[in-house]
Design goal:
The protein is built from five helices and three strands. By secondary structure, it is mainly alpha-helical.
Length: about 100
C-alpha cells in the first residue's frame, strides 16, 4: 500500500464523505487511491455510458464517432478495451452487468 493510500485510509477512518471531498480537492493520485481503498465499483452495462464515465475521469476519446461513419466492430472493441482499462487504472473494479461478473 502506497503512502497516499495509507493517508486516504486514515482520512476514511474519520469519515468517508470528508475523505472523498479531500481527495477530490487534491485530485490525482488521491482520487485513484480513494477508489482503490474503498473498492469502488463501476457497473458496466454499455459502451456509450462507459465512454462518458471515462471522459469524466479524464480519458480522451481518440476513436472517432459512429455517427460520421468512422466506426467498425474492430474500432468498437479497441475502444471498449481502452475505456475499461482506463476506468480500472483510476482505482475502480469494473463489474459487467450483462454477464454479472467482474471484467
Amino acid at each position: 500500500m502506497s503512502k497516499i493510500e495509507k493517508t486516504v485510509r486514515d482520512w476514511i477512518s474519520r469519515g468517508k464523505a470528508e475523505a472523498r471531498r479531500k481527495c477530490e480537492e487534491l485530485g490525482e493520485p488521491h482520487v485513484t487511491a480513494f477508489n482503490r481503498v474503498t473498492n469502488a465499483v463501476y457497473y458496466y452495462d454499455g459502451l456509450g455510458e462507459a465512454v462518458s464515465f471515462a471522459e469524466s475521469l479524464g480519458w480522451v476519446d481518440r476513436f472517432g464517432d459512429a455517427q460520421n461513419g468512422e466506426w467498425s466492430a474492430t474500432i468498437a472493441d479497441s475502444c471498449e478495451a481502452e475505456v475499461l482499462e482506463y476506468i480500472k487504472s483510476k482505482g475502480y473494479r469494473v463489474w459487467w452487468v450483462i454477464y454479472n461478473e467482474e471484467v
